Amino acid sequence: MMIETNLNNFFVFQTKNIGFSQDNIILTKDNKLQLISRKCPNCQKPDIIFNGSKQDNRIIVKELGLTLYKGQYICKNCKTTGIVRSEELDEWIKQFKEIIKNTVISLAANKLSFEKISQHIKDIFGKNISVEWVRQLYNRAIKNLRRSKPKKVSGYFNYDEQHLKRNGKEVVRITIIDAITKTIILDKKFEDKSKKTIAKAIKKALKKYEKQIKCFICDMDDKYPAILEELYGKGVKLQWCIFHLFRHINKEFREGCGYGKAKRKLSLMNEYNKMSLFNIFFNHDREISFLKRLMKKLEQRKSMLDRSSLSKKDKENLIWEYEDELREEYKEYCRTLKKNRRRKCFAKLKKRTHKKALALLEQITTIISLYPKKLISRIRKIIEHWDKFSMGLRDRKVPLTNNNLEQYYSATLHQVEKKRFRSDE
After folding, report:
1. Smallest Cα–Cα separation from 206: which of 167, 132, 161, 156?
2. What distance in Å separates the CA atoms of residue 15 and residue 7, rounded to the nearest whole number?
3. For every residue of 284-341, which 3-state class applies, written as one string?
4. Are the C-beta atoms of residues 37 and 75 closer than 8 Å to each other?
5. For residues 332 and 310, what is the distance between their CA atoms, to the nearest angstrom?
6. Which of 271, 298, 349, 358 is the most buried (most CB within 10 A)?
7. Are the C-beta atoms of 187 and 160 separated by less than 8 Å?
8. Is the separation of the CB atoms in 123 and 116 below 8 Å?
9. At what angle do helices 373-384 and 242-257 cross, to 10 degrees?
């Protein structure tokens, strides 16, 4: 194939890079694929007449900034009509599209925004790729990911639901992910959110893997144990998500002990009590030690003010101000710990051993009366359902949280995806 380059096609169509072998095809200066010979491919007689061209409307061609035409012809002898096509050119465009697609998926997996991905492709390939096309490539990749079925499963499954609205009607999105391989087993929306629908969806999705089921990780909804027991018997193992437990504990501390406009502030003592509960399942010894030091500082300040001649009201105001400063110091310390974990290749908090977790829970029960009423009920529920909260401590393969699914939802339900899920499509 011969190529007559112009400013429009010079970057892309270089004969050295492509190496076409179709000598009968030429790419003209006005970007038209044209036959050099007038010999008809059908009757082999030189009676071809060129009668216009058809624009190539493929997205990849437009995104590359090209205006490409395919020449049309008709044979006067046998009346055969045709469009000039180059298999090598089509293959090259297909390969280039695959490179772009793989680049988009790789960068999106590293949490780059669509705008940054588009800019990165421009910097690397020298081509302006629109943000909209990047989004389309990503959505197609996500759809294929949802459709993929695993050949092997670990037997540990994350389960969760999302309650959405589509055209004003409530729908439930049921999702199951393999907790070890991260493979999507089920991701489907249902109009009916009854227990019967949920049970039917789970049973159908895991029909092939019934003998391999070892454990389910889900949130603390009371209906799940009953549904799973009905499907797989009383021996089915369940891990309640500790992340959801922590959210309940945090909320109940704020409602019972919080102050300020939004009741978001807790005293250092309540922060310590809250972290003591978190410390049962994950190692938060650093935060506990830091809070002890801050509380010691606060007590020293109180004793110093007690010896002063200030009024009681002034002393209280100074103590509140100082405690606010210490609380900000604690928050900054927690942020630093989190940053340091992320720098170490997104290192996770260390799980407690089952023995250590039980010992810490026993310590909490000895001072349970010091907690607010709602927290007392929460601690008693942890004790009552300890087997469901501690499965991940007894079997180290079981994750303690449903974070795999939360991350999947956050990746698939950003702003443009939310709009798509609310549409008829």
Report:
1. 156
2. 15
3. CHHHHHHHHHHHHHHHHHHHHHHCCCCCHHHHHHHHHHHHHHHHHHHHHHHHHHHHHH
4. no
5. 31
6. 271
7. no
8. no
9. 160
Contacts of 299 (CB under 8 A, 6+ apart): none
Q: What's the angle, vertex CA 367, arms to CA 361 and CA 370, rounded to 5?
A: 125
Neighbour count for residue 292 (Cβ, 10 Å): 12
What pLDDT shows up at residue 345? 59
Rounded-to-10 torsion of CA 255, 256, 259, 260? 10
Predicted pLDDT of residue 23: 57
CA-angle at 294, arms to 290 and 299, nearest 5°:
145
Q: Do the beta carbons of residue 88 and residue 20 sit within 8 Å?
A: yes
Distance CA 307, CA 268 (A): 23
**b (16+ CB within 10 A) / e for 5-16:** eeebbeebbeee
Length of the chain: 425
Q: Which two tokens stand for residue 75?
A: 């044979």
Q: What residue type is assigned to position 374 of the chain?
A: K
Beta-strand ranges (E) seen in 191-319 are: 215-218, 238-240
Taking only the tens place, the pLDDT of each residue in 344-387 is: 655 678 899 999 999 999 999 998 988 888 899 999 999 999 99
User: Tokens representing 232?
Assistant: 């797989």
User: What's residue 423's pLDDT?
Assistant: 47
* The pLDDT value given to residue 414: 52
Angle (nearest 5°) at CA 273 between 267 and 277: 140
CA–CA gap between residue 225 and residue 285 (Å, rounded)? 32
DSSP three-state, residue 318: helix
Task: Read off the pLDDT of residues 264-292 as tens digits, 9 standing for 90 and up.
Answer: 788 899 999 999 999 999 999 999 999 99
Q: List, for the chain, all residue ranges whose pLDDT scores fall below the cut of 70.
A: 1-36, 59-66, 85-90, 92, 126-127, 143-151, 262, 343-347, 413-425
